[in-house]
Design goal:
Largest sheet: 7 strands, mixed, barrel
CATH superfamily: PK beta-barrel domain-like
Structural class: alpha+beta
CATH architecture: Beta Barrel
Order of helices and strands: HEEEEHEEEHHEEE
Number of strands: 10
CATH topology: M1 Pyruvate Kinase, Domain 3
Strand order of the largest sheet: 1-5-4-8-7-6-10
Radius of gyration: 16 Å
């Protein structure tokens, strides 16, 4: 697992190392071997901000707000930012599997969580407390794209897009900030509310 961006510049145009790309079979076997992610209480593993040039910065601490999301991130510089895609969130163990030793900020996600992000565990409308901030899962789908393929290989894109596994949200989910608050790497994440009648 590599979260530092100090030794290599990673930005929105960065591509991956083909020698690190996993095949679809390898990804599927890797997923099956992962231990179950926490359902109720997890932790924030890392926070990443994308600056004006798309460069990734791993931050030890951020102050999330409903207005800005993660201040200084690319989302807030859009002409009309969509609140439904304010924070890109990915499950840490899945990201580590797909990256296969490559720097995790290549994903471009803001929050890396040790938490089950599946639809069964966190349907849209569910709320979690991350550090001091209150976040809500949005219905916006977080889909893989050509950039994912360029960074982690075409099989990685197939892996996260497979219909039979779409409910697992392997590419991640989007959240928005409901209540502002500081969040630090290592902070606890607690599921406060599961929407749509989930337990």
């Amino acid at each position: 697992m590599t979260m530092s961006t100090e030794t290599v510049r990673l930005d929105s145009q960065s591509v991956g190392d083909p020698a690190r790309y996993l095949t679809l079979d390898e990804l599927q076997r890797g997923l099956e071997s992962l231990p179950a992610a926490p359902r109720d209480h997890g932790r924030v593993v890392a926070l990443v901000r994308r600056d004006a040039e798309g460069v990734r910065h791993v931050e030890p601490r951020v102050h999330l707000t409903p207005e800005a999301g993660l201040p200084g991130d690319a989302w807030g510089r859009k002409r009309t930012p969509n609140p439904e895609s304010q924070l890109a969130v990915i499950q840490m163990d899945v990201a580590t599997l797909i990256a296969n030793g490559q720097p995790l900020p290549l994903f471009g996600d803001n929050l890396f969580l040790d938490l089950d992000l599946s639809t069964a565990n966190l349907p849209a409308g569910s709320r979690v407390r991350a550090g001091q901030a209150l976040l809500e899962v949005t219905p916006q789908p977080h889909n893989g794209c050509r950039k994912l393929s360029a960074r982690f290989g075409p099989d990685a894109l197939t892996f996260v897009s497979m219909r039979e596994r779409r409910h697992l949200n392997l590419r991640g989910i989007y959240m928005r900030v409901i209540e502002a608050g500081a969040v630090c790497a290592g902070d606890p994440v607690e599921v406060l509310l599961r929407a749509a009648g989930e337990r």
